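Predict the assembly for these two chains.
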Amino acid sequence: MNALSLVLFQTGLSLKLNFRNRMAVIYGYLFPLIFLVAFWVIWRNDEVPLALHLGQLLTVTVLGGACFGLPTTLVSERERGVWRRYAITPAPVWVFIASLLAARYVLLLTAALLQLAVGFAFGMPLPLHPLSLLAAFTVASVAFIGFGLVIAMLADTVPAVQALGQCIFLPMLMVGGVAVPLSTLPDWAQHISAFFPGRYAVEAMQAAVTGRGLTGTGFDLAALLLIGTAGALAAAMMFRWDGGERFSARPGKAWLLLAVGMWIAVGVVAEMHGQVRAIDAVDTEAVPKVGDFRAPAIPMPASWEAVTAADFDAIAFDRLPPDGGIVAPIAAPDEAPDPQVAERIANIDAALDHWRPGMVADPVQRVRNWLSVLAVPDVLQMEQMEKFLPPLVFTRLREMFGDPDLAKLLYWVAMHPEGGDDTAMRHLEALGLPAISGPMQKPRARVMLYAFKFLKRLRAKGMR
Amino acid sequence: MAARGVRLSIQGLGKRYGKQEAVRGISLDVAAGEIVGLLGPNGAGKTTTLECILGLRRPDAGTISVCGIDALKAPRQAHARIGVVLQQTGLPDKITPREALAQFARLYGAHQDGEVLLARFGLLEKADGLYETLSGGQKQRLALALAFAGNPAVLLLDEAAAGLDVGMRRALHDDMRAMRAEGRALLIATHDMSEAMELCDRIAVLHRGRIVAEGAPDAVIGAHTSLEDAILALTGTALADSGR
């Protein structure tokens, strides 16, 4: 039997034994679901519960499985002489370690898939970049499994694993950008978080869920790979088969410095390259209102057809957020999306031809529905998607209504952000976009902003 | 000895833990079809010697050869020829004897029939029971069965009869005789004088890391009334007092 098939056999056996262990199953699968529910409860007021926090949730799952599950299993078996018995077989050492790591990765991945499946069942949107998410999840697993091995080498007993694991787990949850979003933490905590791998895992996975995939996550992935590799190497050099052999009594303890030193090195490089800036808060921003852009004393026209140039003149367009900002962005004419985003936008463009909410008879509702296609990616911070879709929709609306009527309709929609029907926002799956289900105040405000911005563009084109 | 074919050869073995010399220049050969007993009080160096043979401890001096293979340079190749029952080893709680035998057959790259071993060591009834549910005796029998998974030329048994009832102990002794008859070389560490007298072709008495007497049991007993008396005279410690 060659070594690879031996690894596969050992991995399969490890998994089989794991599933016979009730506590391991509870720890490996029930706890991640409990975290899912907890996150759901905490972020229940998001427009899409969990979508903006999936990176955090998956990081908690990997962290728990790697920093507790893996070393607990290894140390427990070492204490009972299982590894001592393996050590005197002819199979190479790496076969056992590779099998252990492969089995742990499968357990982490299946726990994450279970979380995602339950999340989807409750309306969480599909990740924008599933393969990127798998890649980021795998790299995060490498990082934490590597450090889980270090814990297993440091700890002489299972209680020691729990103590050491908590020393890593809790700080990372609280000030490491894992359980508590970095943007809500004080500045000092954001700097501390740069020295913990948790934030890099969160950022890489969240980018795959609602961002640009792996684009722009190079530092995060490199940091995780370096931390994981250093941990695995240090653990291999400190490896011990025998439960009777104490960590304090064995040589090679200096290898621990490599594992810990890599965390510090990554943090220092992050500080030097300005990588510690927190992702901007997306859920605590103030929701803009009509009154921010138009004086309330000015009388409202009776209908959209009655809107005049004087009404347009009363709008403070200069108060709108910049097109290059985070809220209601619009790509500049010379900007081009990444090829994969361009492909998705082309698919959305094609799907819009048959999108029923985009064909409703009422012109006001139709404009509102078209703008909701922009509002949802914007609220979800779908980076490139949110800024490259507006030009497409703007062109479609101009073709559909002509500039004079479109200006009036946009004005009307902008002036009535709470009016009309918002069910289109809950049915964007046909376009390959996530549908949202939570409070609608913020996406409705984005509809208003895009209406104002499009109106501003029409005015700039000389339409009065 | 050479004519009978030496399977295990230890020459000048030394091992120290800090300032304490656990093994001091032990030399010992075990031939095919021979059972050699390592006797001595606790701390005499028996387990350390076995652990050095198996690569669990790195000796500070000496050489170890298993079937002509340098066990210090090629431990994995040596392990392929050794069957082991060691103290302080175990298996995962949730594994069954049948699965463990299948696993070890693969680890040893052997084609031993697990069912034959289950039957030979009286484990057929518990073949699908979890390891954590086995009695101490059943676990010991499984350890013996696993020692056979690789069809070994050399067997190292450290207190292999510990935890077995009288019937199983007798069966184990029969097995060991059968192993000897099959041409295997057995090195056993034991506190059990009757076991040593009954089974061993030769015994080596260890005291403070040295072999203080070696030879056929009768030769070691010499002018003493029993093996226990001889060991007491050689080491100043009765094995019965040194515990297990």
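Chain A is about 60% helix and 0% strand. The CA atoms of residues 33 and 199 of chain A lie 21 Å apart.
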